[in-house]
Amino acid sequence: MASRAMNRASRLRARTRKRTAGAILVFLGILLWAGTFVLGMTSEELLMDQLLFFAISVGGAAVVGGIILISVTL
What we know:
With 74 residues, the protein is mainly α. It has one domain. It has helices at 2-42, 49-72. Helix 1 (2-42) packs antiparallel against helix 2. It is rod-shaped, with a radius of gyration of 18 Å. The two termini are 26 Å apart.
């Protein structure tokens, strides 16, 4: 009986860690998108086109990964 309760607690901790990691990924992705947008609006010389597209892609992947992690743990 005690092992069943410990197993449940460890599953709950794992679920909480996944949700937290998902929320952090979503936040970092949105932060990367916003930073890219701000730098792109202030000066076009600061960002090359390849770096801009790379930052947008990485930010999108972080947001999608975070959403997947959050939705899997519901």
